[in-house]
Design a protein that fits this description.
By secondary structure, this protein is mainly alpha-helical. It has a domain at 1-23 and 54-81. Helices cover 54% and strands 0% of the residues. The protein contains three helices and no strands. It has helices spanning 2-25, 33-36, 54-81. Helix 1 packs antiparallel against helix 3. The chain starts with a helix and ends in a 22-residue tail after the last helix.
């Protein structure tokens, strides 16, 4: 079980770095010079519908893998430690007696 946990951690970190790289490689909407002056889609040949290129697909799939590995890490951690709550095992402050009425 520990080997699977470490494998998912390594996969998660690799997907994180890949996702960062793919997002940074993408060009924002209207990022060229014509976009600064209100030009729409100067670099796209087919308008805004052609924006689903390879980088956006890679971003989508790496985000899906990132979410799946995040959920898998939580499930594997809970199974390995046996805890059911983040607050489980935390110590609460002792409850004091109410104050006595009087002057």
């Amino acid at each position: 079980m520990q080997i699977l946990f470490y494998f998912v951690i390594v996969l998660h970190v690799l997907v994180c770095f890949f996702l960062i790289g793919v997002v940074l490689l993408q060009q924002g909407r209207s990022a060229d010079l014509a976009g600064a002056f209100g030009g729409q889609g100067s670099q796209t040949a087919f308008g805004p519908r052609a924006a689903a290129n390879v980088l956006t697909r890679l971003t989508t799939w790496s985000a899906i893998i990132f979410m799946c590995t995040s959920i898998c890490l939580v499930v594997l951690f809970v199974r390995s430690t046996g805890s059911h709550s983040v607050l489980e095992g935390s110590h609460t402050a002792p409850v004091s007696a109410p104050a006595k009425p009087g002057k």
